[in-house]
Amino acid sequence: MRARAFSLVELVIVVVIIGVVAAIAVPRVTTASRRAKANALEATMASVRQAMELYYADHRKYPGYNPSTGAPVNANFPLQLTRYTDEAGNTSTTFGTPFIYGPYLREPFPANPINGLSNVYVKATPTSPTLIGGTGWLAVLSTGDFDPNVSTAELEEFTIEAAKAKP
């Protein structure tokens, strides 16, 4: 009795079929990932902007200022949104007089889905620089603007690719 085995032609056909399936599946996975990041970026920006407006309604200024000096402080921005604050903007991890405002977002402060960084560079006015190395977000305290810290070209490429990926 002779043992049955696959012929070389049958094995080549199977390898070709697997290659075709992989060629179809891999781009779908990468475009789905890009689309998910674009959706995460939009959702994150919307929730932080809403939190900024709620903070502004309570404090009559946007988060990111030093309560004592009034100067912009990068580290204050996420703290003032994720912790309890008093009327001046000082922060506390516990609720109680005078820390009766907030928190406006849950900790930790959200990361930028494009570059993965969660720190914020705050500017008092919308002047240069427009991009800061090693920073996830940019906030302009005079206008309440909040944007990802990426170049316009990088953001356009990211959103265009994500839009192409939508079914």
Give a short synopsis of this structure.
The protein is built from three helices and five strands; from the N terminus they run ααβββββα. The protein is mainly alpha-helical and 167 residues long. The longest helix is centred in the N-terminal third of the chain and has 52 residues, at 8-59.
Structure description:
- With 167 residues, this protein is mainly α.
- It has one domain.
- 44% of the residues lie in helices and 10% in strands.
- It is built from three helices and five strands, in the order H-H-E-E-E-E-E-H.
- The strands form two sheets. It has a three-stranded mixed sheet, with helices on one face. A two-stranded antiparallel ribbon has the order 1-2.
- Strand 1 and strand 2 (91-92) form a beta hairpin.
- Helix 1 packs across helix 3 (152-165).
- 25% of the residues are buried.
Q: What is the string of SSEs from the N terminus onward? A: HHEEEEEH
| Rg, Å, rounded | 24 Å
Q: Into which percent range does the helicity of residues fall?
A: 40-55%
Helical stretch count?
A: 3
What count of structural domains? 1
Structure classification: mainly alpha
Q: Quaternary state, please?
A: single chain
Question: What topology emerges from the helices and strands here?
Answer:
Elements: H1 8-59, H2 76-82, E1 84-85, E2 91-92, E3 120-123, E4 137-140, E5 145-148, H3 152-165
